[in-house]
Model the fold of this input.
Amino acid sequence: MLSKTKIKQIKSLEYKKFRNELGLFVAEGEKLVTEILQSDFQINSLFCLPNTVLPKHNARLEIISETEMKRISFLKTPSTALAVIKIPDKKININVINSSLSIVLDDIQDPGNLGTIIRLCDWFGIQNIICSLKTADCFSPKAVQATMGAICRINVFYVELNDFFNNIDKNITVYGTFLEGENIYNTKLSSSGIIIMGNEGQGIAPEIEKYVNQKLYIPCFSNDAAKQPESLNVSVATAIVCSEFKRRFL
Amino acid sequence: MLSKTKIKQIKSLEYKKFRNELGLFVAEGEKLVTEILQSDFQINSLFCLPNTVLPKHNARLEIISETEMKRISFLKTPSTALAVIKIPDKKININVINSSLSIVLDDIQDPGNLGTIIRLCDWFGIQNIICSLKTADCFSPKAVQATMGAICRINVFYVELNDFFNNIDKNITVYGTFLEGENIYNTKLSSSGIIIMGNEGQGIAPEIEKYVNQKLYIPCFSNDAAKQPESLNVSVATAIVCSEFKRRFL
Done:
């Protein structure tokens, strides 16, 4: 039986303030909870409906009713399992950043976009995502769900981007996507470096643009010269950029 | 002053049943409404807050208050302009399909994914999207907003896919994205053809798969052989596929 205090605590995890205070976040769905249980994440509490199949784990499992699940779920259609998880405390490894390909997100606002970007970084073997402090929180329920489990495998850091750029190797190539620059399809790309993706409406901020030493753009193929689309969705643009970087080194 | 009947009518357009009955859909936001007014779409009614700047148009404009806008808006944060638009009656041109690159969507469920796909097709100059009858409705408020105006420029058709495939040229290449097949990065791709993208959970249905004559997959670059991600978000996968098809013919 779920206590009112517990329900209130779980529901409070919709908000970043309470996630940070409690150091906890929520993941839902049998598939996602299964991936969490098989990862290094530490479980705070675990709830499921009767007859739900979950892998072996050490967490204390509480079997609850559908009505109770509805009370704690953030989904429109509550699923069969919900886990409350400790937010991991990870530190950036600058040596890894200096020698691999990483993504920097400059104020991505939409948690769905963020979650989708984490998911596609997992697909493309990009291990580290460095976010500006104003970027959406990767532990918000919407972002976590959109990662489809990639949140277990990808490191997401929140830092003051100026500090970050001042700490990395000065010789590393910093790519930025803009509406002008070099056509990404014809440009030599390196197997390591930083790719900056900008805010949904504003793109990369001028104070971050100064760190870019290779501007890239994705050419538009629209047939109608009079009515060109303005931009691509940021998660879609990130996917195209990651695909271009990775296919070159197949 | 908005009548209760008008408010009720507009709010009913959240549902496909009423959109089809009335032949109307809603678009919101100054930018999107501006694009709609500059397109061939016919306006049924148009609402904006005082001092909103819209381009010249022939529609009857009603200036309303913020409170009234909140009553008719589908957005969490209502914008300054809302248009009610006639759903266009477009017919597939099979000759165009036979000689260009088109996308077929097999039961895409999420209106946000659908809107994002319409937007990226606009970017990549893919003029025609053919959807199975169970694919999300492109005129739902969420899909329209996610297109960011591309709904004005791209043709979206809803048809029985078996009929569609039986009507097109037998020599056209039909590509389908799967988890196996040919690595898309190394495969010869044609400048015209059909690309089928499948449902978010199930992929391409077996009864549609039979029309595919070239299976493609996007290779996974994950470093962790033990914990590979299962799939990519469908709008992200569509973006990568379109990017590959188009860059070859730059």
In short: The two ends of chain B are 53 Å apart (CA to CA). DSSP finds ten helices and ten strands in chain B. The longest helix of chain B spans residues 234-247. Residues 125 and 160 of chain B are 24 Å apart (CA to CA).
